[in-house]
Design a protein that fits this description.
- There is one protein chain.
- By secondary structure, this protein is α/β, with parallel strands linked by helices.
- It has helices spanning 5-14, 29-45, 61-67, 87-109, 123-131, 147-152, 183-186, 190-196, 216-229, 263-269, 279-287, 302-311, 325-336, 339-352, 357-372; strands at residues 19-24, 49-55, 72-74, 113-116, 135-140, 158-161, 175-176, 205-209, 234-238, 253-256, 272-275, 291-294, 316-317.
- The chain is built from 15 helices and 13 strands.
- α12 (302-311) links the parallel β12 (291-294) and β13 (316-317).
- α4 packs across α5, α9 packs across α13 and α11 packs across α14 (339-352).
- The radius of gyration is 21 Å and the shape is globular.
- The protein starts with a helix and ends with a helix.
Length: 373
């Protein structure tokens, strides 16, 4: 389903009461998933709501958005980088083009509020919404705010954060809510997940995910570790698009580039999850109280997320640059052999990232609408 001017005119003629909310984020599934979760929470409270999700042309978010039944429109955008690269010369022009395209969409859709949860793709549509007189709301997932939310925060009427460690790092951030998790994740069925992927229903399951865009360094370590681990468990290894490792195969080692529909069920089925430290993935793991071994992307914002997890005793945290296959095998076998430790890690993660986040943000956004009226 897509949004067009004719549809906008029909809605405008049919009702002046309808609530319109523009959603934004893309380039990765991690920036889209919490936005979808908040949309679900708003829709559960209001039947008179119309959504439009604005994302990127090539990012993985479109699959998630359309699976959630939300209309999707792409715009051009460039990345906002804080390190030297020749693309810093060309990408500002793409950002400006994206803002122009987003202004056209905003003019047609006329949102009451625009909401995003970080990532470079949020900037054009949220700036366009602000220029057009709408209110904007942002959520900061990671402990260290990214450049996109630093740009948007001064324009925002609402700024929420996932963790208390972020307070004081982002202008206007006053409320700690956790990180929103989609309803589909919360209703994962482990037996169904095993059945759909043809996994053994009894053997322990280790799920490895490097995020929607994959993690080449972690993939190599996991692939090497899998040679030993297949004697103990099934392994589902989500490698990311085009980042699979050819060669050795085994009936208990399953390389998959990307999962959408079955992802909630595979998380539910897992005994141990090996993950990057993107906050969206961490919140989904915590929602199902899974024991996690977290390997943050080296020299990135993910290291601060991982440090917060370590502080809250919510995960086993390992440095990729100091990690090898033998060490990963030892960590995984240790967790698989200790059910009480797995339970303690899962409980700590759930306490750190509660399932109330989507509802809390939804209530705040609806309050903004009432204030506008």
């Amino acid at each position: 389903m897509t949004w067009d001017r004719a549809q906008s005119r029909r809605v405008a003629r049919g009702s002046t009461e309808i609530l319109r909310i523009l959603l934004a984020g893309g380039g990765s599934g991690g920036s889209a998933a919490p936005v979808i979760a908040v949309a679900e929470a708003i829709a559960a409270r209001r039947s008179d709501v119309e959504f439009l999700y604005v994302g990127t042309r090539t990012g993985p978010e479109r699959v998630l958005v359309e699976a959630a039944g939300l209309p999707f429109q792409p715009v051009v955008t460039g990345r906002l980088r804080r390190y030297p690269t020749w693309r810093n010369v060309t990408d500002p022009g793409l950002v400006l083009l994206g803002i122009a395209q987003a202004i056209d969409l905003v003019h047609s859709f006329r949102p009451d509020v625009a909401f995003g949860a970080g990532g470079f793709a949020t900037v054009p549509p949220l700036v366009a919404a602000k220029i057009s007189g709408g209110k904007i709301a942002i959520h900061q997932q990671d402990v260290v705010p990214g450049l996109a939310n630093r740009i948007l925060a001064p324009l925002a009427s609402l700024v929420t954060v996932a963790l208390p460690e972020t307070l004081g790092r982002l202008r206007g951030a006053r409320r700690v809510v956790g990180n929103p998790v989609r309803v589909a994740i919360q209703s994962g069925d482990g037996q169904l997940g095993r059945a759909r992927l043809g996994l053994d229903q009894v053997l322990p399951l280790v799920l490895v995910t490097g995020g929607g865009t994959g993690a080449a360094g972690l993939n190599r370590i996991v692939w090497e570790a899998a040679h030993q681990l297949v004697s103990d468990c099934e392994i589902v290894h989500l490698t990311g698009d085009g980042k699979g490792i050819p060669g050795w195969t085994h009936p208990r080692y399953h390389q998959i580039e990307f999962l959408s529909r079955d992802m909630p069920h595979i998380i539910a089925a897992a005994d141990v999850v090996v993950s990057r430290a993107g906050m969206s993935a961490l919140a989904e793991i915590a929602a199902l109280k899974k024991a996690a071994i977290v390997v943050p992307m080296p020299s990135s914002h993910q290291e601060a997320n991982a440090a917060a997890l370590r502080l809250h005793h919510a995960a086993v945290v390992r440095d990729e640059l100091a990690l090898d296959a033998d060490q990963l095998v030892t960590e995984i076998r240790s967790l698989l052999g200790d059910a009480s430790r797995r339970a303690a890690l899962g409980d700590a993660g759930a306490a750190m990232l509660p399932l109330t986040a989507a509802n809390a943000i939804a209530e705040e956004i609806l309050l903004l609408v009432r204030e506008k009226v």
